[in-house]
Amino acid sequence: MTNIPVTTWSLEQTAPTDLLPAPAPEGDVRIVRSEVPSPEFSRFLYASVGGDIRWIDRLAWTYARWQEHLGRPGVETWVAYDRGTPAGYVELEPQDDGVVEIVYFGLVPAFRGRRIGGHLLSYGTARAWDLADRWPGLPQTKRVWLHTCSLDGEHAMANYQRRGFTLFDTKVEEQSEVTAPGPWPGAYPA
């Protein structure tokens, strides 16, 4: 198996005023919180959004592991719908001391390039900042962070920076090169 260098960039916002929202796209695009923990739906989103950019870490998760993760207080999934069809999602996960990570964010390939991504990221980031309002017992958010890497979409880093995220760490590591699995094996050409 071949190893390839992968650069990972970590970005953050340290105040709600850091957020620079993107305008809403034209058409019938709605963002809705998936309030019922659903391993099936979350795995569908994960595989559909990340299948062409080598998201593989959760593919081996069992149903029980998905259920455990999704049932944690403060873990939220916000889904963008374009005319009723799931177009992408953002997953939020609270951490210690008022920190919220945007763990996953992205669009299904067919919906990229339609100005949905900036809007979804803006909306998801705003929900990270007000997470404690929906989850009594969680501390108020003091910091929102995320990471992206050189395997992600070509416009990912620029989108994060346009939304007001600033770089705080960069790492380069060798990783095993894997074939993009697609939303199911063989969905994308090797």
From TrEMBL:
PROSITE patterns: GNAT. It holds the Pfam family Acetyltransf_1. InterPro entries: Acyl_CoA_acyltransferase, GNAT_dom. It comes from Streptomyces plumbiresistens. This is GNAT family N-acetyltransferase. CDD domains: NAT_SF. Coiled coil: none annotated. Gene3D superfamilies: 3.40.630.30. SUPFAM superfamilies: Acyl-CoA N-acyltransferases (Nat). Residues 29-190 form the N-acetyltransferase domain.
